[in-house]
């Protein structure tokens, strides 16, 4: 291994570009393997000097969630807002419709599903919000993670179908959640159901919206690539979409943890559960709208 390059840092970028050009030339003209290896090591050393020490203030994961993710969400606000409306619009519409026409719930929910959710949120249920098959809070955490990841991935992967899959899953999941919420509200299970979902709803729904936004970003590359080829647009938008999906995954894991360990607790009145849930919504909104501004300014 060669020694680290001992040159003026101000001239390093220009030398790095020259090294990369030389390496590409050597490979293109099939010069000796020893020469190619020597240049490769020099390129790696220069890359480490430029990028490896560029941000000594913290690790990449911390930087991403502390500032890069909210900055990304704000820069991609159009797809984020579109995904949020596609999810929450049908949810609220179905929730309201069932209060007026109770049988509307059966447009999306089978009788067996209705019977199961009524049992899960009944005041007499031994474990609030838990299916009979689940044995513990840890089992429920795994179940919620698997379920939410499946929903998020459907919205994300559906974007490859020119965005139509993402739109479909956002609309469908909004209607489905709205049907459950509307039915349980209409039959009077307000305390148990809303007390259960209040705590984790901010993280779960925001994560679902970000996953949908990632899917829409993929769809935009195929529908409106601009001056790029569709493949180039998909590669470029895909890098942004994957970063949005990282944020969705983190929120999904957090929501699943709260849903498994906080949401089922019966020792707190509905007002406390709603207050905690409202605080989480405010924190989520403040994080996405405000975090990262200082790091961008500097």
Concise structural overview:
This protein has 298 residues and is mostly helical. The chain is built from twelve helices and no strands.
Helices and strands: which structural class? Answer: mainly alpha
Largest sheet: none
Shape: elongated
Helix percent band: over 70%
Describe this structure in words.
It is built from twelve helices and no strands. It has 298 residues and is an all-alpha fold. It folds into two domains: 9-52; 60-297, no CATH class. Helix 8 runs parallel beside helix 11 (270-290). The radius of gyration is 25 Å and the shape is elongated. Residues 1-5 have low confidence and may be disordered.
Structure characteristics:
single chain, 298 residues, 2 domains, 0% strand
Which SSEs are present, and which pair or pack?
Blueprint: H1 12-28, H2 33-52, H3 60-75, H4 77-100, H5 111-120, H6 137-157, H7 164-186, H8 190-197, H9 201-223, H10 230-261, H11 270-290, H12 293-297
């Amino acid at each position: 291994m060669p020694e680290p390059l001992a040159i003026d840092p101000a001239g390093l970028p220009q030398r790095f570009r020259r090294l990369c050009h030389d390496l590409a030339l050597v490979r293109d003209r099939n010069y000796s393997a020893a020469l190619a290896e020597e240049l490769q090591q020099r390129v790696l050393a220069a890359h480490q000097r430029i990028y490896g020490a560029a941000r000594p203030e913290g690790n990449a994961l911390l930087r991403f969630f502390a500032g890069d993710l909210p900055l990304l969400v704000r820069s991609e606000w159009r797809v984020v807002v579109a995904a949020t409306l596609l999810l929450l619009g049908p949810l609220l519409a179905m929730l309201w419709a069932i209060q007026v026409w109770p049988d509307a719930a059966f447009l999306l929910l089978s009788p067996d599903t209705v019977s199961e959710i009524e049992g899960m949120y009944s005041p007499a249920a031994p474990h609030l919000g838990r299916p009979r098959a689940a044995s513990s809070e840890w089992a429920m955490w795994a179940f919620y993670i698997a379920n939410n990841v499946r929903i998020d991935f459907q919205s994300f992967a559906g974007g490859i179908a020119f965005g139509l899959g993402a739109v479909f899953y956002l609309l469908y999941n909004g209607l489905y959640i709205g049907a459950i919420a509307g039915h349980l509200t209409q039959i009077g299970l307000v305390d148990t159901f809303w007390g259960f979902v209040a705590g984790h709803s901010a993280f779960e729904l925001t994560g679902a919206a970000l996953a949908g936004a990632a899917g829409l970003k993929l769809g935009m590359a195929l529908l409106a690539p601009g001056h790029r080829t569709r493949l180039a647009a998909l590669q470029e938008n895909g890098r942004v979409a994957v970063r949005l999906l990282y944020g969705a995954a983190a929120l999904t894991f957090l929501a699943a943890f709260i849903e498994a360990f906080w949401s089922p607790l019966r020792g707190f009145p509905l007002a406390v559960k709603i207050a905690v849930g409202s605080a989480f919504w405010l924190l989520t909104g403040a994080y996405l709208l405000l975090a990262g501004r200082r790091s961008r300014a500097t």
